[in-house]
Amino acid sequence: MTEGGVDVSIERKGETRAEDGRRGPNTCPSCHSHYRDDELRASLRVCPQCGHHFPMPARERIDSLADPDTFEEEALDVRSSDPLDFFDLRPYPERLAEAELETGLGEAVVIGSALLDSNPCELAVMDFSFMGGSMGSAVGEKFARACESAAERSVPLVSVTASGGARMQEGILSLMQLPKTVCAVEELYDSGGAMFSVMAHPTTAGVLASFASLGDVIVAEPGALLAFTGPRVVQQTTKERLPDDFGLAESNLRFGHIDGIVLRPDLKPFLARLLRLFANDR
Amino acid sequence: MTADDQLLRLRERLSRLKNMSLLGGATLSSDLKRLQKQIEQLEAAPTLTGEQIWHSVELARHEKRPYTLDYVERLIDDWVELHGDRTRADDPAIVAGIGRFNDRTVALIGHQKGRDIKERKYRNFGMAHPEGYRKAMRVMQLAERHRFPVLTLIDTPGAWPGVAAEQHGQGGTLARSHQLMADLTVPVVATIIGEGGSGGASAIGLADRVLMQENAIYSVITPEGCAAILWRDAGQAQKAAAAFKPDAAHCLELGVIDVIVPEPAGGAQNDYDEAAQLLGESIEQELGEIEDESGTALRRQRRAKFRSLGVFAPVL
Question: What is the value of pTM for the model shown?
Answer without folding.
Answer: 0.91
